[in-house]
Amino acid sequence: MKLGFLTAALPNKSLKELVEWGSSKGFKMLEVACWPASYEKRRYAGTQHIDVVNLTADKASEIKAMFAEKNMQISSLAYYPNNLDPNLDARREAHEHLKRVIVAAQMLGVGVVGTFVGRDPRASVEESLEEYKKVFPDLVKFAEDHGVKLAIENCPMLYEDRWPGGSNLASTPEIWERMFELIPSDYLGLNLDPSHLIWQQIDYIQAVYDFKEKIFHTHAKDTKILKDKLGRKGIYGFGFYMDKIAGLGDIDWKGYLRALYEVGYDYVVSVEHEDRGWEKDEENILDGIYLAKKLLDPYFV
């Protein structure tokens, strides 16, 4: 396995700067953010380190050469919109851009694109699965036709105005199983992030064993359960956990990575930075990403 990081938290750094910094710190891969030039801003979204709309064959060759020069690779292209947005215009725009990202991945020789399923937070799981069954076969077929795998991240996308439904259907192993039964494609799998499972009281290590064939990519982000708040709010409350740098929360990284080794996973572990305690400026964000690497390094060979 190789350590990498997601570029989304550093929108003002150029791709070249991030490749050079990552290489100098011993990272081997980058998960490259590829949002559109204009996108509804939310925290850690809207970042564009590769302009997939205007990507040419020459530019793709330049990018590949830049990575090769530093002995780096792109683990995946990252674009995480709501692909089941109830606003059909927004949904159409998301699908159009996602397909551009898939085409760009093929041009760059990248085998994985990370995205969300999405969800209307007002809809039930059953209603959302019905919508997924209508919408996603076309996206998966497009990915298949371009030799690119779709890796669905399991973040529920919960905010106070969307609690407890969230705007991403693919939040639990039970739902993943239903998704993969409805669309049984070798090109549809997971970008598995244990940080979204631990606060749901889901066994994130067992999930590795249960979905070993579907793990295309994995994130390294941590979660700290705030037991005092959980004790007052309960599991149906909001704000009882915090995103943390990998290694600074409650996830058993030794156990999680051991499980990945045992099932034969041999790709990237991509550090995702969403820790508010390490974001006062760009250097602080970079320090946080590097700290995650130092904390995880003992488990890599």
Compute the number of helices: 10
Number of domains: 1
**Helical fraction:** 25-40%
Oligomeric grouping of the chains? single chain
Counting helices, strands and paired strands, the structural category is alpha/beta
CA(first)-CA(last) distance: 8 Å
Q: What fold name stands as the CATH topology?
A: TIM Barrel
Q: Outline, from the CA principal axes?
A: globular
CATH homologous superfamily - what is it? Divalent-metal-dependent TIM barrel enzymes
Structural notes for this entry:
The protein has a single domain, classed as TIM Barrel (Alpha-Beta Barrel), CATH 3.20.20.150. The chain has 10 helices and 10 strands. The strands form 2 sheets. It has an 8-stranded parallel beta barrel, surrounded by 5 helices. Strands 8-9 form a two-stranded antiparallel ribbon. By secondary structure, the chain is of the alpha/beta class.
Quick structural gist:
By secondary structure, the protein is α/β, with parallel strands linked by helices. The protein has helices at residues 15-24, 57-69, 88-108, 125-145, 173-182, 195-198, 204-210, 227-233, 253-262, 282-296; strands at residues 2-6, 29-33, 73-78, 112-115, 149-153, 188-192, 215-220, 222-225, 241-244, 268-271.
Keywords:
301 residues; alpha/beta; eight-stranded parallel beta barrel; 10 helices
SSE inventory with pairings:
Layout: E1 2-6, H1 15-24, E2 29-33, H2 57-69, E3 73-78, H3 88-108, E4 112-115, H4 125-145, E5 149-153, H5 173-182, E6 188-192, H6 195-198, H7 204-210, E7 215-220, E8 222-225, H8 227-233, E9 241-244, H9 253-262, E10 268-271, H10 282-296
Parallel strand pairs: 1-2, 1-10, 2-3, 3-4, 4-5, 5-6, 6-7, 7-10
Antiparallel strand pairs: 8-9
Helix pairs in contact: 4-5, 7-9
